[in-house]
Amino acid sequence: MIVKNICCIGAGYVGGPTMAVIAKNNPHLKITIVDINQARIDAWNDADVSKLPIYEPGLAEIVQETRGKNLFFSTDIDAAIDESEMIFISVNTPTKTYGKGKGMAADLKYIELCARNIAAVAKTDKIVVEKSTLPVRTAEAIKSILHNTGNEINFHILSNPEFLAEGTAVQDLLNPDRVLIGGESEAAIEALAKVYNSWVPEEKILRTNLWSSELSKLTANAFLAQRVSSINAISEICELTGANVNEVAKAIGMDSRIGSKFLQASIGFGGSCFQKDILNLVYIARSYNLNEVADYWEQVIIMNDHQKRRFSDRLIKTLYNTVSGKKIGMLGWAFKKDTNDTRESAAIYVADHLLNEQANLSVYDPKVSSFKIQSDLNYLNTRSEEENEASVKTESSPYEALKAAHAVAIMTEWDEFKTYDWEKIYSHMKKPAFIFDGRNILDKAAMQKIGFEYYSIGQ
Ligand SMILES: NC(=O)c1ccc[n+]([C@@H]2O[C@H](COP(=O)([O-])OP(=O)(O)OC[C@H]3O[C@@H](n4cnc5c(N)ncnc54)[C@H](O)[C@@H]3O)[C@@H](O)[C@H]2O)c1
Ligand SMILES: O=c1ccn([C@@H]2O[C@H](COP(=O)(O)OP(=O)(O)O[C@H]3O[C@H](CO)[C@@H](O)[C@H](O)[C@H]3O)[C@@H](O)[C@H]2O)c(=O)[nH]1
């Protein structure tokens, strides 16, 4: 199967960086990324690459290099489908907010719309690649739609889940641990493997059946999130016993069977994937009546919710059981450093809890706008937009955000937070000045020497 033109439906956090890296490494291929969101496409086409819709270290440079040469962004979805031999589906698959499976199952309506769109437009054989994260056996549904509504041409469906993490997307794409391709048609699998082969070594390209590939993605995220919940569970024991979670993590991480990565205790994991994908796994298990399996994985989420709640409860308790009318300076809003993504960020839930206790919040994040912070809070529907606006201020300087604050709450592990003039911050805060370090990034002894009352996770 000869592939010259590739289309990617969905110009988001996955579609944008993934296709940019494919374009960079395959100058002979024409890649068109399409989306229904005109504003997003306009931002991808902005001459000023600092205005791209997604912030990822190294991404702007690759887009600059490839855009207009072999990488294109467009809203003309039909034209891109028509001219391509290979079509990636990289649209969002959020948790359902209605009907059967509400709050658990993945909402596949955008996937189905894409399949129907491809079927309606395609006049020549197509390889359709599932790039979105999907429940196991979704390829069956896509196949059924394509074959029943298409123009009697051949569709080959592949599963090619994406494992990039935000903040390191470009590096992860350039040096992936593995590329996973699941499928039935060997020719289609090899056509996709060839695209990756231009920069990924052959031994890292893994071929499996469709269902193993789909399930491996959910499993990888469940295992990763489970590690975070596991170390967070231990952090609570540490706080009551005098053990130090950083020391425990180091000690267990040196066991090569356990490994040292993903053992950073925190305010809880966030991001658009972990919670959604585990809920999806739990839903799948329940739908097969595997209740013990479902309960096992659900506990990862229960622990994560507990960790977020525990953080704000501890802050309130330490501030003499009330934050009403007090200014709390929040450093960071993104769900992790080096991204402007705030989906499911622990900061949103901690802020909501503090607002319920009538705190005044002052937020600084190097990459997240005031508009985004307000809309994240409004989305929860806990209080009116006017109330959120009155109680939550966003500052463009961390020093301003922390001026006259009763406490600092560190929500994201941005590197710059470590380099601030903490003596200056201390001198402008209300006394006693508290730090609640939700990411264990500051030096406890140095903060205490300045005069702060310093609290971190698991110490
Ligand atoms: N964000 C990550 O780090 C990450 C990593 C690996 C896998 N994933 C998975 O990849 C998928 C995409 O995630 P994302 O973070 O890029 O989502 P996103 O919300 O950033 O982007 C999805 C895009 O698809 C567009 N879209 C939706 N329906 C469409 C349609 N019918 N036609 C054209 N465009 C349409 C939306 O407008 C949006 O711009 C999800 O399944 C997610 O679970 C995400
Ligand atoms: O030791 C750790 C590691 C991570 N986290 C938190 O866990 C969340 C997720 O972090 P990370 O996994 O680095 O970022 P994501 O972009 O959500 O990436 C995950 O989700 C993606 C979407 O499916 C997958 O592709 C990636 O492989 C998987 O790592 C963030 O809030 C982190 O702060 C911790 O608290 N402690």
List the helices and strands and how they pair.
Elements: E1 5-9, H1 15-25, E2 30-34, H2 38-44, H3 59-66, E3 71-74, H4 77-83, E4 86-89, H5 109-121, E5 126-130, H6 138-149, E6 155-159, H7 169-174, E7 179-183, H8 186-197, E8 205-208, H9 210-241, H10 245-253, H11 274-287, H12 291-318, E9 327-331, H13 346-356, E10 360-364, H14 370-380, H15 385-391, E11 392-394, H16 398-402, E12 407-410, H17 422-428, E13 434-437, H18 444-450, E14 453-456
The protein binds nicotinamide-adenine-dinucleotide and uridine-5'-diphosphate-glucose.
Keywords: NAD, Oxidoreductase
Active site: 273 (nucleophile)
GO molecular function: NAD binding; UDP-glucose 6-dehydrogenase activity
Provide an overview of this structure.
The chain is of the alpha/beta class. The protein folds into 2 domains: 5-208, Rossmann fold, CATH 3.40.50; 302-456, NAD(P)-binding Rossmann-like Domain (Rossmann fold, 3-Layer(aba) Sandwich), CATH 3.40.50. 45% of the residues lie in helices and 14% in strands. The chain has 18 helices and 14 strands. It has helices spanning 15-25, 38-44, 59-66, 77-83, 109-121, 138-149, 169-174, 186-197, 210-241, 245-253, 274-287, 291-318, 346-356, 370-380, 385-391, 398-402, 422-428, 444-450; strands at residues 5-9, 30-34, 71-74, 86-89, 126-130, 155-159, 179-183, 205-208, 327-331, 360-364, 392-394, 407-410, 434-437, 453-456. It has an 8-stranded mixed sheet, with helices on both faces. A 6-stranded parallel sheet has the order 11-10-9-12-13-14, sandwiched between helices. Helix 13 (346-356) links the parallel strand 9 and strand 10 (360-364). Helix 5 (109-121) packs parallel to helix 6 (138-149) and helix 12 crosses helix 13. It is globular. The model has no long low-confidence stretch (mean pLDDT 97). The structure holds nicotinamide-adenine-dinucleotide and uridine-5'-diphosphate-glucose (UPG). Residues 9-15, 35-37, 40, 77, 90-93, 110, 113-114, 132-133, 162, 164, 166, 272-273 line the site of nicotinamide-adenine-dinucleotide. This is UDP-glucose 6-dehydrogenase. One of its GO terms (molecular function) is UDP-glucose 6-dehydrogenase activity.
